[in-house]
Amino acid sequence: MTPWHLRQAARTLRYGGIIAYPTEAVYGLGCDPLNAAAVLRLLALKNRPMEKGLILIASNFQQLAPFVYTPDPDMMRRISATWPGPVTWLLPAKAETPAWLCGAHDTLAVRVTAHPQAAALCRAFGGALVSTSANPAGRPPARHPLRVRHYFSHYSNEPLDYILCGALYSHTKPTEIRDALTGKVIRPA
């Protein structure tokens, strides 16, 4: 990934586009979480119901703070012990967090990513990003940009706006998801 590619990806996000980018385990699809049209288009590309909710990734907790309540100090210590890293936490969503992000839940899935390109993308964009696996519903998550291109040219009526190529981390499964209030593992790693 060159600085030019990173700037191009961030510019695409700012103009309401949908991009694919490498994360810890799979390629992710992302967009501006506050752009309703972009999020709804992303959900349509994946054939994913809004009720399921989405994950936001960020380069630091401050980028997530507009969307979730700040955890109490004990909970924040538990969360901080896993960040940056491949653990996604369900935190109570603020009342003003858009329904297109939370779906049918009063929590929001959030992660401070350890992936250097994904974190650099969040910094270049200037905030948190939607992060959902780059695959149509029912297909395995894409682990290579060619698979991303194949999925969204053969199984979708609309291509992606940009693919930021790069290496995945060595994780072979999507990130673990934990409930911050109960500590329960919702999706194991």
> CATH topology, which one?
DHBP synthase
What class do helices, strands and sheet pairing give?
A: alpha/beta
The count of DSSP E runs of length 2 or more, i.e. the number of strands, is 10
Sheet-strand content, in percent, reads 15-25%
List the helices and strands and how they pair.
Blueprint (H helix, E strand, L loop, with lengths): L2 H12 L4 E4 L4 E4 L5 H11 L8 E4 L14 H8 L6 E6 L6 H4 L4 E6 L3 H10 L3 E2 L1 E2 L11 H10 L7 E2 L12 E4 L5 E3 L2
Parallel strand pairs: 1-8, 3-5, 4-9
Antiparallel strand pairs: 1-2, 2-7, 3-6, 4-5, 9-10
Helix pairs in contact: 1-5
Write up this protein.
The model has no long low-confidence stretch (mean pLDDT 93). This protein is 29% helix and 20% strand. It has one domain: DHBP synthase. The relative contact order is 0.26. The strands form two sheets. The protein has a six-stranded mixed beta sheet with strand order 6-3-5-4-9-10. A four-stranded mixed beta sheet has the order 7-2-1-8, with helices on both faces. With 189 residues, it is of the alpha/beta class. The two termini are 27 Å apart. Strand 9 and strand 10 form a beta hairpin.
